[in-house]
Write a structure and sequence with these properties.
The protein is of the alpha/beta class. It folds into two domains: 249 residues, Aldolase class I (TIM Barrel); 71 residues, Arc Repressor Mutant, subunit A (Orthogonal Bundle). The chain has a nine-stranded mixed beta sheet with strand order 9-10-8-7-6-5-4-1-11, sandwiched between helices. Helix 2 packs parallel to helix 3, helix 3 runs parallel beside helix 5 and helix 6 runs parallel beside helix 8. The chain is globular. The chain starts with 11 loop residues before the first strand and ends with a helix. The model has no long low-confidence stretch (mean pLDDT 95).
Length: 390
């Protein structure tokens, strides 16, 4: 597959991974490690900055503006506000960035003290993402969560009062033995807490998890579809607009970091097991990085932070682009595909036209440019749509 266009520089985001959590949840397949001792937060922040400096030098990013920052995990809220402030100060000193750059930090209700969100805000965090998952006690126990419903509600209240620009509530549906009413009650409580953003997604059983080895009884497909349909109506009526498969936001509060990721933008990944993707317009290459996965190895001064550095092949770029872009409930232009992949639209045009013939995608022409978008049917059968681009 030959390159037929030139890559264009993409917006650059930064993902920071903090791997520790209180307990490993049975559904979680993220790179997280239960705390067994005192978290070495100062040593880890020092390592993160060294990791970042190595990436900046490796990809010659000194003059690239920074679009957004996302601190995920694990449970980043286990860190002190002082450690987060030191980290963010060091990061922002190394990049050109807007004064109001979006900086998200993930938090769990069970790790939040009364003044901790205010501390994170003072440290520079502008957006909080709170992992609630459910407000039902029996479901929280089944999911292995360490918080209860009241703590979740309190966390949302504290986020509202902390000073951050916005906050997200992470909520699951399709939980073990969950009825339609149970799922909608969860969603109604979340809406009543008035977050600016709700991530509402179906529980899936992933390999290498406790749930995979001991599968719980999940709702049947008919119940799952009904939960989804009624839930979307509830969110729409409450003023939340769906802009991605599992992301709903009030106008103006879409997660800018995730939007960049889904639009095949660039991102550095620092921290244990973090992944990154960088476009090099000079060589017309797209590079991917993976960092050392385990905290012990990552903190070993004798070891390189970088575990893998690979080039995204021409044959892989169309699927990678579509796997992200087609999650969004918005159009994309032909020129966006070409500038993001360095390939002509002709590479995927037969597949796009096949998707159109199956009512999975639609196309409109404006100012002599084609605008493609996933249909409602395509959204419902996204996996079938994506298989066309493999």
């Amino acid at each position: 597959m030959l390159k037929e266009t030139m890559l264009k520089i993409q917006p650059l985001s930064l993902y920071i991974h903090i791997p520790w959590c209180v307990e490993k949840c049975p559904y979680c397949d993220f790179n997280s490690h239960a705390v067994r001792d005192v978290i070495p937060e100062q040593a880890y922040v020092t390592a993160l900055i060294a990791d970042l400096e190595a990436d900046i030098e490796r990809f010659q990013l000194t003059n690239r503006p920074l679009h957004s920052i996302f601190i995920g995990g694990g449970t980043p809220s286990l860190f002190s506000a002082e450690a987060i402030e030191r980290l963010l100060t060091q990061v922002l000193n190394r990049f050109i960035h807007e004064k109001d750059i979006e900086i998200t930090l993930e938090a769990n209700p069970g790790t939040v003290e009364a003044d901790k969100f205010i501390g994170f805000f003072n440290a520079g965090v502008s957006r909080l993402s709170i992992g609630v998952q459910s407000f039902a006690s029996d479901k929280l126990i089944k999911l292995g969560r360490i918080h209860d419903s009241n703590q979740a509600k309190t966390a949302a209240k504290l986020a509202t009062e902390s000073g951050v620009t916005s906050f997200n509530l992470d909520l699951m549906h399709g939980l073990p033995n969950q009825s339609i009413d149970n799922a909608l009650d969860d969603l109604k409580i979340a809406i009543s807490l008035n977050p600016s953003h709700i991530s509402w997604y179906q529980l899936t059983i992933e390999p290498n998890t406790i749930f995979h080895s001991k599968p719980p009884k999940l709702p049947v497909d008919d119940i799952l579809w009904e939960i989804q349909d009624q839930g979307i109506k509830l969110l729409n009526e409450a003023g939340y607009q769906q802009y991605e498969i599992s992301a709903y936001a009030k106008p103006g509060y879409q997660c800018q970091h995730n939007l960049n990721y889904w639009q095949y933008g660039d991102y550095l990944g620092i921290g244990c097991g973090a992944h990154g993707k960088i476009t090099d317009v000079n060589s017309n290459k797209i590079m991917r990085t993976v960092k050392v996965k385990h905290p012990k190895g990552y903190l070993d001064n004798e070891r390189n932070f970088l575990d893998q550095l690979t080039e995204v092949s021409d044959s892989d770029r169309p699927f990678e682009y579509m796997m992200n872009q087609l999650r969004l409930h918005r159009v994309f232009k032909v020129s966006q595909f070409e500038e993001s992949t360095g390939l002509s639209i002709n590479v995927v045009l037969p597949k796009l036209e096949e998707a159109q013939s199956k009512n999975l995608m639609t196309v409109k022409i404006k100012d002599n440019e084609e605008y493609w978008q996933v249909t409602t049917t395509g959204q419902r059968y996204l996996n079938d749509l994506l298989e066309l681009f493999l």
